[in-house]
Amino acid sequence: IDELLRQGVAGKRVFVRADLNVPQDGTTITDDGRIRAVLPTVKALADAGAKVVVASHLGRPKGAPDPAYTLRFAAARLGELLGAPVAFADDTVGSAAHHAVEGLADGQVAVLENLRFNPGETAKDDAERAEFAARLAALADVYVGDGFGAVHRAHASVHDLPKLLPSYAGYLITTEVGVLERLTDDVKRPYAVVLGGAKVSDKLGVIDNLLKKADRILIGGGMAYTFLAAQGKEVGISLLQEDQKERCAAYLREAAERGVEFLLPVDVLVSPEFPDLKTKAPTNPTTVSADAIPADQEGLDIGPETRRLYADKLADAATVFWNGPMGVFEHPDYAEGTKAVAQALADSPAFSVVGGGDSAAAVRTLGFDEKAFGHISTGGGASLEYLEGKALPGLESLED
Ligand code: 3PG
């Protein structure tokens, strides 16, 4: 983007593919981290006199307009953060979008409605995606890719559009890639990785690669129970991906062969019922050994002994990557595990990278100062796929 700014963008229509996929509760954005993350790019372009057209997806609507997934509120928040009015077009390539872009004076910003309201954005069919990309291209002279959280998606606005316009990487993508490079090349050791979250299948690819790079892997959250089950333990009614058990067992064996410390919870908080995240009504969790989860109970957070163990294992690490909460942190009864990991990273001099929408949101909503961490990534799946060593369509198109 610095190169683009050097060439001059005054009067040019610049399409910024952002990732404004933020959590919202009705009309309220509950974590605006991803909006703030794209501000440097939007501001620099606006200050240089560009007509800035910001586009993003939000959620996973089914290729048609759906008010539950409007970008209207994210656009309003972007305007507040910029301290300038932001126009909002309630379509992506239709008359509202054209009208909004034509109405921009130099240095002004417009946000288009959710790209995924159009089936062409996510279409598997190349021609359908290309056709949508061409309609987006008609709205701009230049493309800036800055939606790091979506670079792993081969979608029209991420993968096809940059091939149709002169294209540049924005500040966010450049920063994120720079940070992830520090986790892949010449990483400072000990290198510890903390993985949590619900879906073990989403994380297995990254474990595969990290077993070759990390010194320690600490597992928590919903995915821990499939590993515990793979060790032959009873996990009660905890989240379990039966079809992944064998692969988890193979990773445990591989970790032992490679001398990678692979830590699973030694105790967990259990309850017979999943807590109500809306009312946050108190539940009555019990702490049990990970060897003795009762048949009618569900594991919902790591226990106190595991919290201490994991904090110890993080205390002397030089590099830490953390993706995924340790428990159902949205409910106060099950937030301590996630807090303990966040606290251990905040207290440590290690270069720590927090990735993934949930862990990044957890750090912020649990009241931690973002500055206590080396980097809070806006990418969940994107940073995982980067660390898996996969080619990312949104980066490949920009490199082309
Ligand atoms: C994310 O939240 O990880 C990105 O915005 C990508 O969203 P997606 O998983 O719906 O493609």
Describe this protein's structure.
It catalyses: (2R)-3-phosphoglycerate + ATP = (2R)-3-phospho-glyceroyl phosphate + ADP. With 400 residues, the chain is an alpha/beta fold. 38% of the residues lie in helices and 17% in strands. It has helices at 2-7, 33-47, 72-82, 95-102, 119-122, 126-137, 156-160, 171-182, 200-210, 224-230, 245-258, 304-315, 336-347, 357-365, 381-388, 393-399; strands spanning 13-17, 24-25, 28-29, 51-55, 86-89, 109-112, 142-145, 167-169, 191-195, 216-219, 261-263, 267-271, 286-289, 298-302, 319-323, 351-355, 375-376. The strands form four sheets. It has a six-stranded parallel sheet with strand order 5-6-4-1-7-8, sandwiched between helices. A six-stranded parallel sheet has the order 11-10-9-15-16-17, with helices on both faces. Strands 13-12-14 form a three-stranded antiparallel sheet. Helix 2 packs across helix 3 and helix 10 (224-230) packs across helix 11. It is elongated and about 65 Å long. The relative contact order is 0.12. The mean pLDDT is 96. Bound molecules: 3-phosphoglyceric acid. 3-phosphoglyceric acid is lined by residues 19, 21, 60, 149-150, 153, 357, 380-381.
Describe the structure in brief.
38% of the residues lie in helices and 17% in strands. With 400 residues, the chain is an alpha/beta fold.
Brief descriptors of the model:
alpha/beta; 6-stranded parallel sheet; 17 strands; elongated; binds 3-phosphoglyceric acid
Mean pLDDT rating: 96
Helix content range: 25-40%
* Terminal-residue CA separation: 15 Å
Would you tell me the structural class of the helices and strands?
Answer: alpha/beta
Q: Over all CA atoms, what is the radius of gyration?
A: 22 Å
Regions with little confidence, pLDDT below 50 for 5+ residues: none
